[in-house]
Amino acid sequence: MEKAFVEYAYDVVSNSKEPLSLREIFDKALKLSGLSLDEDAKLTKMSKLYMSMSEDERFVLIDKKWDLSDRHSFSQIHKNDVDLDDEEEEDMDEEEKEYLREEAGEEAEEEFEEESDDLDFDKKNPDEDEDDDLL
Q1: CB of 53 within 8 A of CB of 4?
Q2: In sequence order, which ranges of the chain are alpha helices (DSSP H)?
Q3: How far is CA 18 from CA 4, 9, 11, 66, 118, in A?
Q4: Which among 118, 127, 7 has a CA at the least distance from the CA of 59?
């Protein structure tokens, strides 16, 4: 039976004396697993590893470094826990995406606001005839 990739990550973190970045964990776990992946597959695999580690109670992310949760006190792990409303959860999703881009070595995507092409129908067009409004 093939070992799950998150188990290789667990082996890496448990053998480390200090917390590691996702990139460090991923690179070492990839080497342990013996997998050979192209760049696109690596990014996909790293994203999946991030999700797996986020959902796995054995891991904790503190100050952008991963460690084993049993190495930290409850107060260290939960010091930043707050109830998030929907808007804050969306922001958190963007923060997670940014974190993954940083870990993968990609530059952050710039967000552009497009100018609205909406017409202001409340304003009167000076070229219109007032008589046309009566039709």
Answers
A1: no
A2: 5-14, 22-33, 39-55, 74-78, 86-103
A3: 23, 14, 13, 9, 55
A4: 7
- 86-107 confidence digits (pLDDT tens): 455 556 577 777 777 777 776 5
Nearest CA to 49 among 69, 73, 33? Answer: 33
**Contact criterion met (CB below 8 Å) for 66 and 58:** no
Question: What is the rounded CA–CA span in Å between residue 43 and residue 130?
Answer: 61
Dmax over CA atoms of the chain, in Å, equals 83
Q: Note whether 47 and 23 are within 8 A (CB).
A: no
How confident is the model at residue 126, as a pLDDT?
Answer: 58
Q: How much helix, strand and coil, in percent to the nearest 5, is found in the chain?
A: 50, 5, 40
* Domains, the chain, ordered by start: 5-78 (1.10.10)
What is the model's pTM? 0.58
Residue bearing tokens 């409004």? 133
The tokens 């667990």 sit on which residue? Answer: 10
